[in-house]
Amino acid sequence: MEKNMCGIAVCIKDKGTIDHAKFERMVDIIAHRGPDDRGVFYEKCLALGHRRLSIIDLSADGHQPFCYRDKYIMVFNGEIYNYIELREVLKRKGYHFSTKTDTEVLIAAYDCFGEGCIEYFNGMWSFVIYDRSRNVLFCSRDRFGVKPLYYTEQEGMFLIASEIKQFFEMLERNPKANRDVLIQYIIRGNLDYSAETMFQNVYQLPGGHNLIYDLGKKTYEIRKYYDIKEIAEKEVSYQEACKEFRKKFKESVTLRLRSDVPTGYCLSGGLDSSAIVCMADRIIKGKQNAEQQHTISSCFEDQRYDEQEYIDEVVKVTSVIAHKTFPQETNLFEDLDKLLWYMDEPFTSTSQYAQWNVFQAAKECGMKVMLDGQGADEQLAGYTGFYIVMVADRLRKRQFGKFLKEWKVYKRNRAVTEKYISSYEILLPAIAALIVPKKCKYILQMLFYWLFPNRQPFSKQQLRMALKTELSYPVHNSRLYIAESVRNGLASLLRYEDRNSMAHSIESRVPFLDCDLAEFVYAMPFDYKLRNGITKSVLRDGLKGILPEKIRKRYSKLGFVTPEDQWINNNFEKYRMELQNALNLLSDVLEPDSVMKWFDANEGKMRRSDFTPWRIICAGHWVNLFHVELT
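Predicted structure:
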């Protein structure tokens, strides 16, 4: 059984021949994504390239570009988890298989079902199929965008890649910044909210979309094939929902345990990662000669940011071997440019540095597969922002008794550990949503910035530019809010997950984004997720007896955090110098004097929730590292 996490490269030249030396570099610059094998295919104006990370079968059967019946050539990054079951379906339709790879199953499914093959896949993927009979490239990205796929049309070429940096091996000109996206990132912290990237004329194919490139006409079309919003709400009792959640979650984790290489888990101590570890442990205990399982955790000496108390509880009730890493601020700037090089674009906080350390430790422990909990918060109302939805819903329905009861539960369980979040940051947006549901966040932010100009470092003109694009979630509609959280809020987290894992040649799997599980969760009523003021209720009750009670009844939430505010407050001069250097590079976008005045006024008082200094510093390093032109 072949499984592989990989990197892909595609070049289509309008005229003339493809520069083979440049294309080979485009393939090899992502050797970290696939250190075990490489391959290229050239035909006239087309080139396909592949790097392979072998997870199970180390034979040549999984070599790519993969040729099938001399009709199709494919490069594929990802996994079709249900490929064993799908292969049996195809066999009954008369297909024969010469390998045990999911790659061959994927291409056979395309031959059988055409573009509709996507509907049969349970997995994560980005792939490109050269269909010789139609003279097209059929490109696809998985439903939720777990695996990356970028494209650009520049200098007489159409290029497709797993990472943006690959394009720079083919292009002559320095990259230019997409100023609108850059401003959104710096001022509002928004990333991956559309097909645009931080680089001008470089796009990502959104999750749930296909791209079809006509090689004859040299034109392409993008088609949406999946949108979770189309899943209708279903009537189901709460008890039945808990039972079905448990069943589907177990199936998802079981599928993602298919591996013959050492498997580990990212364990934060929160509900999501703890659920994966505990369920996997129960599954594996039922198997003979099972490999020893390992957990990797990011920890801190400062207990305000540390979750070892809960990590140790999970380790105590399972048979895993625990490993802990302690990210240090002293190493942050030493590793920043390296981390940025793998990321391609700036990131919003130093929590990604903590994740980097987790995967680095996993590699040192010999892990090649890691399971992580991405996607649960967005689907199961795990974030504090979901309380805004709850409050708005109760007020709109005039359920004042329920509102007071649930508000008391929130204040008791969450507000104590979230002191940096004021009550008005929940109540005001909820009330505004009842009056101006589509523009409530825009109006509140502009009002806040206008009344308290000293609380932020940007001019009113810059704020108007950043806020002109309405990106706030539909607080007035709980189902749409969750759908937008899955589509937009999750996108950058999945990019971080992919880059941090693949930088260390590790395959990361995310059980909560199993399509069957995600659709079931989305279809259940919102009250089953945020129930009686308690988040992720269906998970807590559905996994009773699997999760330790200390975890199951944990209501505080740190998120995957670092002591970023303390790092800045305790090393003010260092960060001031970094900020000034960044502003020198970003002077065409920001007003350095205004930013420095704001930063100096907040010396020693930086709040945990304010990532503005870091975003500016990170953007400055990004401009310098990739030689990005701002004009």
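Summary: The first helix runs from residue 20 to 28.
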